[in-house]
Every structure is written in C-alpha cells, then in structure tokens.
Amino acid sequence: MRAAVLQAYGAPRFGTFDEPVAADGRVVVEVAAAGINHVDVLICTGGFYTGPPPLPSVPGSDAVGRLPDGRRVYVDATVAPYGSLAERTLVPDGHAIEVPDGVDDAVAATLGNAGLAAWLSLEWRARLAPGETVLVLGATGTVGHIAVQAAKLLGAGRVIAAGRDEARLERARRSGADATVTLAGGDADEALAAAAGDHGFDVIVDLLWGEPAGAALRAAAHGARLVQIGQLAGPELALAAATVRSRFAAVLGFAVFHAPLDVRAAAYRTLAEHARDGRLTVDVERIGLEGIEDAWRRQQAGVAHKLVVVP
C-alpha cells in the first residue's frame, strides 16, 4: 500500500509498506484523513519520551476512516509498525470512536489530536470553571486556535490569546479571544502582566514553555493551573519557587493519551457536534501522501493551519 515510511529516525518519505492484516483483536481501518501532528514529528526523531518507533514503520498517531462494517470512526491508537499516514492502518478492536454525520473527514481528523489537546486540557485537566480567565500561550497554531474557541464554549469569562504572529493573533480575536498579546521582540512579563489585569490568569494553556510560561505564571491568579502541552519556545524554564508557592499554582502535565478512552470519546463527540453546527472552526490544508516530505518540513517549521493527509 502507499504510505509515509520512516526508514531512519528523522523524517518519513513517500513509498510503499506491507498491508496490515486483521487478527487477534486488531482491525484494519481504511484511512480517509490523517493529521500530521507535532507529536508525530517528535516521535520520529527517536528521542521522544514514549520511546523510539520501530524501523521501518509508518508514522502517524490518529486518523478518520472506515471500519470493515462501513462505520466512519476516529482512531487514536494504532498497532506498530502501522501508523495512520497510509492508505490503511491497524488498530486495537474496540478503540474506535464513531464520527457524527455532517463533519468533513479532514475536519474530523483535525478534531482528533489537536482538538482533544485543546478541549481536554481545559475541561478535564484544568477543570475550567465558568467565568474564569484563560490565557492560551501559543494561540497562533491549530491547538491554540481551537483552545481559544473551546475556552469560550466551556464558559470562560475572558480569553487572552498570546503568540508571535500578528495576523494569526487577529484570527484568534475573530474566533472569540477578548484580547491578544504579541510575544515577538518584547518583554513577555510586561505584556502578560498588562493583559492579566488585577485578577490574573486562572488557567494557562501552555504550548510554549520556556520564558513565556514563566512570565504567565508570574501574572497568574491565586490557585492558577498551568496545563503544559508543548515546548515550542524551549524545553527548559528557570522559575523561582516562590512564584509557584505564592500563587498556590499548579503545573499540570498533559498529553491526550493520558485521558481514559471514555473521556476522549465524549470530548471528541462534543467537538464534532460544535464543528458540525458552526460553533467551532478549524483551518485545514489537504495534501496527498506523495507530498509527505514537504509537508513534514513545513510542520517542523510551524504552520498556522492543520496539515491533513488524504490518501
């Protein structure tokens, strides 16, 4: 079958791979759309904390496709070496989530890893309460863009979008952000403190880490929760212990796979219904498998919209 194939740690190339075979509680899914996720890029380096993937293998962690009985499903667990960036993949039986009618395949794929990271970080990990103030650090990418909208849908009183790109921040404002903060070339402490106001941030969705996360915590409210999702601004942070203690703050690690299947399934259905009914929007670019090498480079460099492979 046609697939993105990882022959050595780094980036996959377009090629062919052996067909998956259903057996022992595993089922073949015909892939309709599969997103390229930042976590996929990290895994393919061989240095991600979940461990290196086998070589050769097909990368990709989630997809929307069809089961043998014709049901359209979202799957976020595949059986190595069969990832989702191929015409077909192999998944554990019973781990598929049905996709509601009326949602485009590529949009449905985007609501997977990216959508769940945004929604669950707020609802399940931070336990966002109605009326709280939310800061999205890294609001200019897909996860951040969805997080801005998710915060509003979950009842946040005020949502602040922070990032480096002015045009993408304007998109966040159009999608519901009450204020934006530009992090490029300025003093992050001063800018975030001004945006936080007297109350501070109750919940921080952090896709950046590094200095922006430190500045956000210094502008946090008492009892704030920072949900740590990504490290686009750097893998390390120097932070005074007193900052955490004085604000009674919690730093909460998060990855989608930590949430139980029933929690992921309920959140996915909610996201899909919001998208179907126009309450949540995503920006998608569809590419063929043959374009995987260029798409991978673009994902590494950072893109504002979701790259979705349509085999």
General description of the model:
With about 300 residues, this protein is an alpha/beta fold. It folds into 2 domains: about 1-110 and about 280-310, Medium-chain alcohol dehydrogenases, catalytic domain (Quinone Oxidoreductase, Chain A, domain 1, Alpha-Beta Complex); about 115-255, Medium-chain alcohol dehydrogenases, catalytic domain (Quinone Oxidoreductase, Chain A, domain 1), CATH 3.90.180.10. It is about 30% helix and about 25% strand. The protein has 10 helices and 15 strands. The strands form 3 sheets. Strands 3, 4, 5, 6, 7, 14 and 15 form a 7-stranded mixed β-sheet that branches. It starts with a strand and ends with a strand. The mean pLDDT is about 95.
Topology:
Elements: E1 2-5, E2 13-16, E3 26-35, H1 38-44, E4 63-66, E5 72-75, E6 88-92, E7 97-98, H2 105-110, H3 113-125, E8 133-137, H4 142-153, E9 158-163, H5 166-174, E10 179-182, H6 188-196, E11 201-206, H7 210-218, E12 220-228, H8 241-246, E13 250-253, H9 261-276, E14 284-287, H10 292-301, E15 306-309
Parallel strand pairs: 8-9, 8-11, 9-10, 11-12, 12-13, 14-15
Antiparallel strand pairs: 1-2, 3-4, 3-6, 3-15, 4-5, 5-7
